[in-house]
Amino acid sequence: MFPAKLKRHFETHPDFMNKTTDYFKRKSDELHSIQKTFVSHVKTHNENALKASYLVSYELALAGKPHTLAETLIKPLLAIEVNCMVDEKTANLISSVPLSNNTVRNRIQDLSHDVKDTLISRISQTKFSLQLDESTDVAGLAVLMTFVRYELSGSFHEDILFCKPLPSSTSGSVIFFMLDAFFIENSIPWDNCIDVCTDGAKAMMGNIAGVVARIKEVSKKCTSSHCVLHRHSLATKKVPVVLKQVLDNAVKIINYIKTRPLQSRLLKILCEDMGAVHKSLLLHTEVRWLSRDKALSRLLELRTEVSLILNDQNSLLEDYLNDQEWLIKLCYLADIFSKINEFSTSIQGKQKTIFDANDKILALKKKVAFYIESDAQESIQKNCEWIINPFSVTSKPAALNAAEYEVFIDMVSESHNQTSFKNKPISEFWAQLGEDFSVLRSKAKLLLLPFGTTYLCEMAFSRYTATKTKYRARLNAEDDMRLQLTSVTPDIDKLSRKKQAHCSH
Protein backbone atom coordinates (compact mmCIF):
# COMPACT_ATOMS: atom_id res chain seq x y z
CA MET A 1 0.00 0.00 0.00
CA PHE A 2 0.90 3.62 -0.35
CA PRO A 3 1.95 5.07 3.05
CA ALA A 4 -1.06 7.41 3.16
CA LYS A 5 -3.51 4.55 2.46
CA LEU A 6 -1.81 2.30 4.99
CA LYS A 7 -2.03 5.04 7.62
CA ARG A 8 -5.75 5.60 6.93
CA HIS A 9 -6.33 1.84 7.08
CA PHE A 10 -4.89 1.59 10.60
CA GLU A 11 -6.75 4.71 11.72
CA THR A 12 -10.06 3.11 10.68
CA HIS A 13 -9.04 -0.29 12.12
CA PRO A 14 -7.18 0.59 15.35
CA ASP A 15 -7.26 -3.03 16.58
CA PHE A 16 -4.62 -3.95 13.97
CA MET A 17 -2.37 -0.93 14.67
CA ASN A 18 0.17 -2.82 16.78
CA LYS A 19 0.10 -6.17 14.98
CA THR A 20 3.36 -7.57 13.68
CA THR A 21 4.18 -8.41 10.06
CA ASP A 22 4.00 -12.14 10.84
CA TYR A 23 0.36 -11.73 11.88
CA PHE A 24 -0.61 -10.29 8.51
CA LYS A 25 1.38 -12.95 6.64
CA ARG A 26 -0.43 -15.64 8.61
CA LYS A 27 -3.82 -14.10 7.76
CA SER A 28 -2.87 -13.93 4.11
CA ASP A 29 -1.92 -17.59 4.08
CA GLU A 30 -5.23 -18.52 5.76
CA LEU A 31 -7.19 -16.60 3.12
CA HIS A 32 -5.38 -18.31 0.26
CA SER A 33 -5.93 -21.70 1.92
CA ILE A 34 -9.70 -21.08 2.16
CA GLN A 35 -9.83 -20.02 -1.49
CA LYS A 36 -7.99 -23.17 -2.61
CA THR A 37 -10.28 -25.37 -0.50
CA PHE A 38 -13.38 -23.77 -2.03
CA VAL A 39 -12.08 -24.16 -5.59
CA SER A 40 -11.09 -27.75 -4.89
CA HIS A 41 -14.55 -28.45 -3.43
CA VAL A 42 -16.29 -26.99 -6.48
CA LYS A 43 -14.02 -28.90 -8.84
CA THR A 44 -14.57 -32.19 -6.99
CA HIS A 45 -18.34 -31.67 -6.99
CA ASN A 46 -18.39 -30.98 -10.71
CA GLU A 47 -16.25 -34.04 -11.43
CA ASN A 48 -18.53 -36.25 -9.33
CA ALA A 49 -21.58 -34.87 -11.13
CA LEU A 50 -19.94 -35.67 -14.48
CA LYS A 51 -19.17 -39.23 -13.42
CA ALA A 52 -22.71 -39.67 -12.09
CA SER A 53 -24.01 -38.47 -15.44
CA TYR A 54 -22.02 -41.21 -17.20
CA LEU A 55 -23.17 -43.89 -14.75
CA VAL A 56 -26.86 -43.02 -15.08
CA SER A 57 -26.59 -42.87 -18.88
CA TYR A 58 -24.88 -46.25 -18.90
CA GLU A 59 -27.66 -47.85 -16.85
CA LEU A 60 -30.30 -46.27 -19.11
CA ALA A 61 -28.62 -47.76 -22.18
CA LEU A 62 -28.34 -51.19 -20.54
CA ALA A 63 -32.06 -51.11 -19.72
CA GLY A 64 -32.98 -49.92 -23.23
CA LYS A 65 -35.03 -47.03 -21.80
CA PRO A 66 -35.69 -43.60 -23.41
CA HIS A 67 -32.96 -41.03 -22.82
CA THR A 68 -35.49 -38.44 -21.60
CA LEU A 69 -36.25 -40.52 -18.49
CA ALA A 70 -33.08 -39.31 -16.78
CA GLU A 71 -34.14 -35.65 -16.73
CA THR A 72 -37.90 -36.09 -16.46
CA LEU A 73 -38.15 -38.98 -14.00
CA ILE A 74 -34.94 -40.33 -12.49
CA LYS A 75 -33.39 -37.07 -11.30
CA PRO A 76 -36.60 -35.61 -9.80
CA LEU A 77 -37.35 -38.87 -7.99
CA LEU A 78 -33.81 -39.08 -6.61
CA ALA A 79 -33.98 -35.47 -5.43
CA ILE A 80 -37.31 -36.13 -3.67
CA GLU A 81 -36.01 -39.30 -2.04
CA VAL A 82 -32.73 -37.72 -0.88
CA ASN A 83 -34.53 -34.63 0.41
CA CYS A 84 -36.82 -36.88 2.44
CA MET A 85 -34.13 -39.26 3.71
CA VAL A 86 -31.08 -36.96 4.07
CA ASP A 87 -31.45 -33.19 3.68
CA GLU A 88 -32.24 -30.45 1.18
CA LYS A 89 -28.59 -29.54 0.60
CA THR A 90 -27.76 -33.05 -0.61
CA ALA A 91 -30.90 -33.07 -2.75
CA ASN A 92 -29.66 -29.90 -4.46
CA LEU A 93 -26.41 -31.69 -5.27
CA ILE A 94 -28.42 -34.47 -6.92
CA SER A 95 -30.30 -31.91 -9.00
CA SER A 96 -27.02 -30.51 -10.34
CA VAL A 97 -26.11 -33.72 -12.22
CA PRO A 98 -26.37 -33.00 -16.00
CA LEU A 99 -28.91 -35.47 -17.45
CA SER A 100 -30.68 -33.73 -20.31
CA ASN A 101 -31.75 -35.75 -23.35
CA ASN A 102 -28.81 -34.51 -25.46
CA THR A 103 -26.36 -35.01 -22.60
CA VAL A 104 -27.46 -38.61 -22.05
CA ARG A 105 -27.23 -39.28 -25.79
CA ASN A 106 -23.68 -37.87 -25.89
CA ARG A 107 -22.66 -39.87 -22.81
CA ILE A 108 -23.97 -43.09 -24.40
CA GLN A 109 -22.03 -42.31 -27.57
CA ASP A 110 -18.84 -41.80 -25.54
CA LEU A 111 -19.35 -45.08 -23.70
CA SER A 112 -20.11 -46.93 -26.93
CA HIS A 113 -17.02 -45.55 -28.68
CA ASP A 114 -14.84 -46.56 -25.73
CA VAL A 115 -16.19 -50.14 -25.90
CA LYS A 116 -15.78 -50.18 -29.67
CA ASP A 117 -12.15 -49.02 -29.47
CA THR A 118 -11.38 -51.74 -26.92
CA LEU A 119 -12.95 -54.43 -29.09
CA ILE A 120 -11.21 -53.30 -32.28
CA SER A 121 -7.84 -53.26 -30.53
CA ARG A 122 -8.45 -56.90 -29.60
CA ILE A 123 -9.61 -58.34 -32.92
CA SER A 124 -7.06 -56.42 -34.99
CA GLN A 125 -4.34 -58.67 -33.60
CA THR A 126 -6.01 -62.10 -33.61
CA LYS A 127 -8.11 -64.48 -35.66
CA PHE A 128 -11.89 -64.18 -35.38
CA SER A 129 -15.16 -65.44 -36.87
CA LEU A 130 -18.25 -63.43 -37.85
CA GLN A 131 -21.95 -63.96 -37.37
CA LEU A 132 -24.32 -61.65 -39.25
CA ASP A 133 -27.98 -61.25 -40.08
CA GLU A 134 -30.31 -58.57 -41.42
CA SER A 135 -33.81 -57.52 -40.38
CA THR A 136 -36.23 -54.59 -40.72
CA ASP A 137 -37.07 -52.41 -37.72
CA VAL A 138 -40.21 -50.51 -36.76
CA ALA A 139 -39.15 -47.48 -38.79
CA GLY A 140 -38.70 -49.54 -41.97
CA LEU A 141 -34.90 -49.47 -41.83
CA ALA A 142 -32.99 -52.59 -42.84
CA VAL A 143 -30.56 -53.19 -39.96
CA LEU A 144 -27.40 -55.29 -40.25
CA MET A 145 -26.39 -56.97 -36.99
CA THR A 146 -22.83 -58.36 -36.80
CA PHE A 147 -21.15 -60.30 -33.98
CA VAL A 148 -17.57 -61.50 -33.60
CA ARG A 149 -15.93 -64.37 -31.70
CA TYR A 150 -12.24 -64.15 -30.81
CA GLU A 151 -9.65 -65.45 -28.36
CA LEU A 152 -8.34 -63.33 -25.48
CA SER A 153 -6.28 -64.36 -22.46
CA GLY A 154 -6.87 -68.06 -22.83
CA SER A 155 -10.62 -68.03 -23.48
CA PHE A 156 -13.06 -67.26 -26.27
CA HIS A 157 -15.14 -64.09 -26.21
CA GLU A 158 -18.24 -63.06 -28.17
CA ASP A 159 -19.18 -59.44 -28.76
CA ILE A 160 -21.24 -57.20 -31.01
CA LEU A 161 -19.15 -55.71 -33.81
CA PHE A 162 -21.72 -53.20 -35.05
CA CYS A 163 -25.42 -52.61 -35.59
CA LYS A 164 -25.99 -50.33 -38.58
CA PRO A 165 -28.90 -49.50 -40.90
CA LEU A 166 -28.29 -50.34 -44.55
CA PRO A 167 -28.40 -47.20 -46.75
CA SER A 168 -30.47 -48.66 -49.60
CA SER A 169 -31.21 -52.25 -50.61
CA THR A 170 -30.37 -55.46 -48.74
CA SER A 171 -28.39 -56.99 -51.58
CA GLY A 172 -25.17 -58.88 -50.99
CA SER A 173 -23.04 -56.09 -52.48
CA VAL A 174 -24.55 -53.41 -50.21
CA ILE A 175 -24.06 -55.56 -47.10
CA PHE A 176 -20.48 -56.42 -48.06
CA PHE A 177 -19.59 -52.78 -48.80
CA MET A 178 -20.81 -51.82 -45.34
CA LEU A 179 -18.71 -54.57 -43.78
CA ASP A 180 -15.68 -53.69 -45.88
CA ALA A 181 -16.00 -49.97 -45.08
CA PHE A 182 -16.09 -50.76 -41.36
CA PHE A 183 -13.00 -52.98 -41.64
CA ILE A 184 -11.09 -50.33 -43.61
CA GLU A 185 -12.13 -47.48 -41.30
CA ASN A 186 -10.95 -49.37 -38.23
CA SER A 187 -7.86 -50.99 -39.84
CA ILE A 188 -9.09 -54.55 -39.32
CA PRO A 189 -7.34 -56.98 -41.70
CA TRP A 190 -9.70 -59.29 -43.58
CA ASP A 191 -7.12 -62.08 -43.29
CA ASN A 192 -7.99 -62.32 -39.59
CA CYS A 193 -11.53 -63.45 -40.48
CA ILE A 194 -11.57 -67.25 -40.66
CA ASP A 195 -15.32 -68.03 -40.85
CA VAL A 196 -18.72 -66.43 -41.49
CA CYS A 197 -22.00 -67.82 -40.14
CA THR A 198 -25.32 -66.55 -41.49
CA ASP A 199 -28.72 -67.73 -42.70
CA GLY A 200 -29.48 -69.16 -46.13
CA ALA A 201 -30.83 -65.97 -47.74
CA LYS A 202 -29.68 -65.39 -51.32
CA ALA A 203 -28.12 -62.05 -50.38
CA MET A 204 -25.98 -63.86 -47.82
CA MET A 205 -25.15 -67.22 -49.44
CA GLY A 206 -25.37 -66.43 -53.18
CA ASN A 207 -22.53 -68.07 -55.13
CA ILE A 208 -21.58 -64.92 -57.05
CA ALA A 209 -22.92 -61.74 -55.43
CA GLY A 210 -23.62 -63.06 -51.94
CA VAL A 211 -21.91 -61.56 -48.89
CA VAL A 212 -20.08 -64.80 -48.08
CA ALA A 213 -18.75 -65.13 -51.64
CA ARG A 214 -17.42 -61.56 -51.55
CA ILE A 215 -15.81 -62.08 -48.16
CA LYS A 216 -14.03 -65.17 -49.47
CA GLU A 217 -12.61 -63.07 -52.30
CA VAL A 218 -10.82 -60.75 -49.85
CA SER A 219 -10.07 -63.42 -47.25
CA LYS A 220 -8.87 -66.46 -49.17
CA LYS A 221 -8.78 -68.86 -46.21
CA CYS A 222 -12.19 -67.85 -44.83
CA THR A 223 -14.81 -70.60 -44.58
CA SER A 224 -18.57 -70.28 -44.16
CA SER A 225 -21.40 -72.08 -42.38
CA HIS A 226 -25.16 -72.03 -42.71
CA CYS A 227 -26.90 -71.50 -39.36
CA VAL A 228 -27.97 -74.88 -38.00
CA LEU A 229 -31.16 -73.35 -36.62
CA HIS A 230 -32.24 -72.12 -40.05
CA ARG A 231 -31.48 -75.46 -41.71
CA HIS A 232 -33.30 -77.23 -38.92
CA SER A 233 -36.31 -74.91 -39.34
CA LEU A 234 -36.42 -75.61 -43.07
CA ALA A 235 -36.28 -79.36 -42.46
CA THR A 236 -39.16 -79.31 -39.97
CA LYS A 237 -41.46 -77.58 -42.47
CA LYS A 238 -41.64 -80.78 -44.53
CA VAL A 239 -44.61 -82.20 -42.66
CA PRO A 240 -46.52 -85.13 -44.30
CA VAL A 241 -49.83 -84.11 -45.86
CA VAL A 242 -51.92 -86.06 -43.32
CA LEU A 243 -50.18 -84.40 -40.37
CA LYS A 244 -50.20 -81.02 -42.11
CA GLN A 245 -53.99 -81.18 -42.26
CA VAL A 246 -54.14 -81.90 -38.53
CA LEU A 247 -51.85 -78.93 -37.86
CA ASP A 248 -53.93 -76.61 -40.05
CA ASN A 249 -57.19 -77.66 -38.41
CA ALA A 250 -55.68 -77.18 -34.95
CA VAL A 251 -54.64 -73.66 -35.95
CA LYS A 252 -58.18 -72.98 -37.19
CA ILE A 253 -59.61 -74.02 -33.81
CA ILE A 254 -57.13 -71.80 -31.97
CA ASN A 255 -57.80 -68.82 -34.25
CA TYR A 256 -61.58 -69.28 -33.92
CA ILE A 257 -61.26 -68.65 -30.17
CA LYS A 258 -58.39 -66.15 -30.12
CA THR A 259 -59.77 -63.83 -32.82
CA ARG A 260 -63.09 -63.45 -30.99
CA PRO A 261 -62.65 -61.50 -27.74
CA LEU A 262 -66.01 -62.68 -26.37
CA GLN A 263 -65.10 -66.36 -26.88
CA SER A 264 -61.69 -65.76 -25.28
CA ARG A 265 -63.35 -64.27 -22.20
CA LEU A 266 -65.87 -67.11 -22.01
CA LEU A 267 -63.06 -69.66 -22.28
CA LYS A 268 -61.22 -67.96 -19.42
CA ILE A 269 -64.33 -68.09 -17.20
CA LEU A 270 -64.94 -71.74 -18.12
CA CYS A 271 -61.32 -72.68 -17.36
CA GLU A 272 -61.53 -71.00 -13.95
CA ASP A 273 -64.78 -72.82 -13.13
CA MET A 274 -63.38 -76.19 -14.20
CA GLY A 275 -60.07 -75.67 -12.38
CA ALA A 276 -57.91 -75.83 -15.50
CA VAL A 277 -54.19 -75.08 -15.18
CA HIS A 278 -54.31 -72.58 -18.06
CA LYS A 279 -56.94 -70.02 -18.94
CA SER A 280 -56.22 -69.18 -22.58
CA LEU A 281 -54.93 -70.63 -25.85
CA LEU A 282 -51.70 -69.63 -27.56
CA LEU A 283 -51.45 -68.37 -31.12
CA HIS A 284 -49.28 -70.14 -33.67
CA THR A 285 -47.13 -68.24 -36.16
CA GLU A 286 -44.53 -69.53 -38.61
CA VAL A 287 -42.04 -66.85 -37.60
CA ARG A 288 -41.92 -68.05 -33.99
CA TRP A 289 -40.69 -71.63 -34.28
CA LEU A 290 -41.40 -72.45 -30.62
CA SER A 291 -45.10 -71.71 -31.13
CA ARG A 292 -45.88 -75.04 -32.83
CA ASP A 293 -45.17 -77.10 -29.74
CA LYS A 294 -46.59 -74.60 -27.25
CA ALA A 295 -49.77 -73.85 -29.20
CA LEU A 296 -50.59 -77.52 -29.84
CA SER A 297 -49.77 -78.62 -26.29
CA ARG A 298 -52.00 -75.89 -24.85
CA LEU A 299 -54.87 -76.92 -27.16
CA LEU A 300 -54.55 -80.52 -25.97
CA GLU A 301 -54.58 -79.47 -22.32
CA LEU A 302 -57.72 -77.36 -22.82
CA ARG A 303 -59.47 -79.58 -25.36
CA THR A 304 -62.44 -80.26 -23.06
CA GLU A 305 -63.07 -76.57 -22.36
CA VAL A 306 -62.54 -75.61 -26.01
CA SER A 307 -64.95 -78.35 -27.12
CA LEU A 308 -67.65 -76.91 -24.86
CA ILE A 309 -67.14 -73.43 -26.31
CA LEU A 310 -67.31 -74.74 -29.90
CA ASN A 311 -70.39 -76.80 -29.09
CA ASP A 312 -72.11 -73.73 -27.70
CA GLN A 313 -71.34 -71.91 -30.97
CA ASN A 314 -72.48 -74.88 -33.10
CA SER A 315 -69.10 -74.84 -34.84
CA LEU A 316 -68.16 -77.77 -37.06
CA LEU A 317 -64.61 -77.53 -35.67
CA GLU A 318 -65.84 -79.36 -32.57
CA ASP A 319 -65.92 -82.60 -34.59
CA TYR A 320 -62.12 -82.67 -34.68
CA LEU A 321 -61.87 -82.60 -30.88
CA ASN A 322 -64.26 -85.55 -30.67
CA ASP A 323 -62.32 -87.60 -33.26
CA GLN A 324 -59.94 -89.98 -31.45
CA GLU A 325 -57.76 -90.59 -34.50
CA TRP A 326 -57.38 -86.83 -35.05
CA LEU A 327 -56.49 -86.34 -31.37
CA ILE A 328 -53.85 -89.10 -31.56
CA LYS A 329 -52.21 -87.36 -34.53
CA LEU A 330 -52.40 -84.05 -32.66
CA CYS A 331 -50.67 -85.66 -29.66
CA TYR A 332 -47.95 -86.99 -31.97
CA LEU A 333 -47.38 -83.53 -33.49
CA ALA A 334 -47.24 -81.90 -30.07
CA ASP A 335 -44.68 -84.47 -28.87
CA ILE A 336 -42.48 -84.33 -31.96
CA PHE A 337 -42.48 -80.53 -32.06
CA SER A 338 -41.62 -80.55 -28.36
CA LYS A 339 -38.53 -82.69 -29.07
CA ILE A 340 -37.58 -80.44 -31.96
CA ASN A 341 -37.92 -77.35 -29.78
CA GLU A 342 -35.77 -78.95 -27.09
CA PHE A 343 -33.06 -79.43 -29.69
CA SER A 344 -33.37 -75.89 -31.05
CA THR A 345 -33.17 -74.41 -27.57
CA SER A 346 -30.19 -76.56 -26.58
CA ILE A 347 -27.96 -75.29 -29.41
CA GLN A 348 -28.63 -71.65 -28.65
CA GLY A 349 -26.65 -69.54 -26.23
CA LYS A 350 -23.22 -68.03 -25.91
CA GLN A 351 -19.98 -69.95 -26.41
CA LYS A 352 -21.70 -72.63 -28.51
CA THR A 353 -19.45 -74.19 -31.16
CA ILE A 354 -20.25 -76.24 -34.24
CA PHE A 355 -19.26 -79.35 -32.28
CA ASP A 356 -21.94 -78.65 -29.66
CA ALA A 357 -24.54 -78.29 -32.40
CA ASN A 358 -23.30 -81.43 -34.13
CA ASP A 359 -23.60 -83.54 -30.98
CA LYS A 360 -27.19 -82.39 -30.54
CA ILE A 361 -27.96 -83.14 -34.19
CA LEU A 362 -26.60 -86.66 -33.92
CA ALA A 363 -28.72 -87.22 -30.80
CA LEU A 364 -31.83 -85.88 -32.54
CA LYS A 365 -31.07 -87.97 -35.61
CA LYS A 366 -31.48 -91.13 -33.56
CA LYS A 367 -34.86 -89.91 -32.29
CA VAL A 368 -36.26 -88.43 -35.49
CA ALA A 369 -35.66 -90.59 -38.56
CA PHE A 370 -36.57 -87.97 -41.14
CA TYR A 371 -33.88 -85.50 -40.07
CA ILE A 372 -31.13 -86.40 -42.59
CA GLU A 373 -29.31 -83.05 -43.11
CA SER A 374 -26.89 -83.76 -40.26
CA ASP A 375 -25.04 -86.43 -42.33
CA ALA A 376 -22.82 -83.71 -43.75
CA GLN A 377 -21.76 -82.77 -40.26
CA GLU A 378 -20.86 -86.34 -39.26
CA SER A 379 -17.70 -86.38 -41.38
CA ILE A 380 -16.56 -83.15 -39.75
CA GLN A 381 -16.96 -84.75 -36.35
CA LYS A 382 -14.85 -87.78 -37.28
CA ASN A 383 -12.06 -85.66 -38.75
CA CYS A 384 -11.96 -83.54 -35.61
CA GLU A 385 -12.02 -86.27 -33.00
CA TRP A 386 -8.52 -85.18 -31.97
CA ILE A 387 -10.03 -81.85 -30.84
CA ILE A 388 -13.21 -83.16 -29.20
CA ASN A 389 -11.66 -86.08 -27.32
CA PRO A 390 -7.88 -86.07 -27.88
CA PHE A 391 -7.09 -88.63 -25.18
CA SER A 392 -9.12 -91.36 -26.87
CA VAL A 393 -7.32 -91.06 -30.24
CA THR A 394 -5.32 -94.21 -31.00
CA SER A 395 -3.98 -93.46 -34.49
CA LYS A 396 -2.81 -90.43 -36.45
CA PRO A 397 -5.74 -88.21 -37.42
CA ALA A 398 -5.95 -87.32 -41.11
CA ALA A 399 -6.02 -83.62 -40.22
CA LEU A 400 -2.52 -83.74 -38.65
CA ASN A 401 0.75 -84.20 -40.50
CA ALA A 402 3.63 -86.23 -39.09
CA ALA A 403 5.27 -83.32 -37.25
CA GLU A 404 1.96 -82.18 -35.75
CA TYR A 405 1.14 -85.74 -34.68
CA GLU A 406 4.43 -85.99 -32.80
CA VAL A 407 3.52 -82.83 -30.88
CA PHE A 408 0.05 -84.30 -30.32
CA ILE A 409 1.59 -87.45 -28.78
CA ASP A 410 3.66 -85.30 -26.43
CA MET A 411 0.54 -83.38 -25.43
CA VAL A 412 -1.64 -86.40 -24.63
CA SER A 413 1.24 -88.05 -22.78
CA GLU A 414 1.29 -85.34 -20.12
CA SER A 415 -1.06 -86.33 -17.31
CA HIS A 416 -1.84 -82.78 -16.20
CA ASN A 417 -3.21 -82.06 -19.68
CA GLN A 418 -5.68 -84.89 -19.30
CA THR A 419 -6.79 -83.52 -15.94
CA SER A 420 -7.13 -80.05 -17.43
CA PHE A 421 -9.23 -81.41 -20.32
CA LYS A 422 -11.69 -83.00 -17.88
CA ASN A 423 -12.07 -79.87 -15.77
CA LYS A 424 -12.36 -77.19 -18.46
CA PRO A 425 -14.63 -76.45 -21.41
CA ILE A 426 -13.11 -77.69 -24.65
CA SER A 427 -12.51 -74.18 -25.99
CA GLU A 428 -10.66 -73.07 -22.83
CA PHE A 429 -8.52 -76.22 -22.82
CA TRP A 430 -7.19 -75.58 -26.31
CA ALA A 431 -6.92 -71.81 -25.85
CA GLN A 432 -4.84 -72.22 -22.68
CA LEU A 433 -2.59 -74.99 -23.98
CA GLY A 434 1.12 -74.34 -23.36
CA GLU A 435 3.49 -72.77 -25.87
CA ASP A 436 5.10 -76.16 -26.51
CA PHE A 437 1.89 -77.17 -28.26
CA SER A 438 1.16 -73.87 -30.01
CA VAL A 439 0.90 -75.57 -33.41
CA LEU A 440 -2.00 -77.71 -32.14
CA ARG A 441 -3.57 -74.76 -30.34
CA SER A 442 -3.60 -72.67 -33.51
CA LYS A 443 -5.03 -75.51 -35.57
CA ALA A 444 -7.78 -76.23 -33.05
CA LYS A 445 -8.68 -72.56 -32.71
CA LEU A 446 -9.52 -72.34 -36.42
CA LEU A 447 -12.24 -74.97 -35.87
CA LEU A 448 -13.48 -73.75 -32.49
CA LEU A 449 -13.91 -70.09 -33.44
CA PRO A 450 -16.70 -70.48 -36.07
CA PHE A 451 -20.28 -69.93 -34.95
CA GLY A 452 -22.74 -72.80 -35.29
CA THR A 453 -25.89 -70.66 -35.29
CA THR A 454 -26.98 -67.03 -35.68
CA TYR A 455 -28.41 -67.12 -32.15
CA LEU A 456 -26.62 -63.93 -31.08
CA CYS A 457 -28.10 -61.99 -34.00
CA GLU A 458 -31.58 -63.31 -33.34
CA MET A 459 -31.30 -62.47 -29.65
CA ALA A 460 -29.92 -59.02 -30.52
CA PHE A 461 -32.84 -58.26 -32.84
CA SER A 462 -35.23 -59.07 -30.00
CA ARG A 463 -33.42 -56.56 -27.79
CA TYR A 464 -33.35 -54.10 -30.68
CA THR A 465 -37.13 -54.36 -31.11
CA ALA A 466 -37.67 -53.74 -27.40
CA THR A 467 -35.36 -50.71 -27.49
CA LYS A 468 -36.47 -49.05 -30.73
CA THR A 469 -40.24 -48.98 -30.36
CA LYS A 470 -42.79 -47.05 -32.40
CA TYR A 471 -42.46 -44.25 -29.84
CA ARG A 472 -38.72 -44.04 -30.50
CA ALA A 473 -38.78 -44.65 -34.24
CA ARG A 474 -36.19 -41.92 -34.94
CA LEU A 475 -33.60 -43.40 -32.58
CA ASN A 476 -30.23 -44.42 -33.99
CA ALA A 477 -29.89 -47.44 -31.73
CA GLU A 478 -26.33 -48.51 -32.58
CA ASP A 479 -24.68 -47.06 -29.47
CA ASP A 480 -27.47 -48.25 -27.16
CA MET A 481 -27.29 -51.75 -28.64
CA ARG A 482 -23.51 -51.90 -28.32
CA LEU A 483 -23.73 -51.17 -24.60
CA GLN A 484 -26.58 -53.65 -24.11
CA LEU A 485 -24.89 -56.50 -25.97
CA THR A 486 -21.19 -56.05 -25.29
CA SER A 487 -19.15 -58.00 -22.77
CA VAL A 488 -16.68 -55.10 -22.52
CA THR A 489 -17.09 -52.67 -19.60
CA PRO A 490 -16.49 -49.03 -20.59
CA ASP A 491 -13.85 -47.06 -18.69
CA ILE A 492 -16.03 -44.34 -17.16
CA ASP A 493 -13.18 -42.86 -15.09
CA LYS A 494 -11.10 -42.35 -18.22
CA LEU A 495 -14.01 -40.74 -20.06
CA SER A 496 -14.72 -38.45 -17.10
CA ARG A 497 -11.12 -37.22 -17.03
CA LYS A 498 -11.32 -36.27 -20.71
CA LYS A 499 -14.40 -34.09 -20.23
CA GLN A 500 -14.63 -30.64 -18.70
CA ALA A 501 -17.09 -30.95 -15.81
CA HIS A 502 -20.13 -28.65 -15.73
CA CYS A 503 -23.09 -28.92 -13.39
CA SER A 504 -26.69 -28.71 -14.50
CA HIS A 505 -28.44 -25.37 -13.97
In short:
It contains 25 helices and five strands.
Topology summary:
Blueprint lengths: L2 H10 L8 H43 L5 H17 L2 H8 L5 H23 L4 E9 L5 E11 L2 E11 L6 H14 L7 E6 L3 H4 L5 H8 L4 E4 L1 H9 L4 H18 L2 H13 L17 H11 L1 H10 L5 H4 L2 H23 L7 H14 L7 H9 L1 H4 L13 H12 L1 H9 L2 H6 L6 H11 L6 H13 L10 H8 L6 H7 L7
Parallel strand pairs: 1-4, 4-5
Antiparallel strand pairs: 1-2, 2-3
Strand-residue proportion = 5-15%
**What's the level 1 CATH class of the largest domain?**
Alpha Beta
Low-pLDDT regions = 38-42, 370-380
Total domain modules: 4
CATH level-3 fold name of the largest domain: Nucleotidyltransferase, domain 5
Class per helix and strand makeup: alpha/beta
Strands across the major sheet, in which order?
A: 3-2-1-4-5
Mean pLDDT: 84
CATH architecture of the largest domain: 2-Layer Sandwich
Give the strand tally: 5
Radius of gyration: 33 Å
N-to-C series of helices and strands: HHHHHEEEHEHHEHHHHHHHHHHHHHHHHH
Q: Main sheet, how many strands, which sense, barrel?
A: 5 strands, mixed
Distinct helical segment count: 25
Helix content percent band: 55-70%
Tell the overall outline. Answer: extended
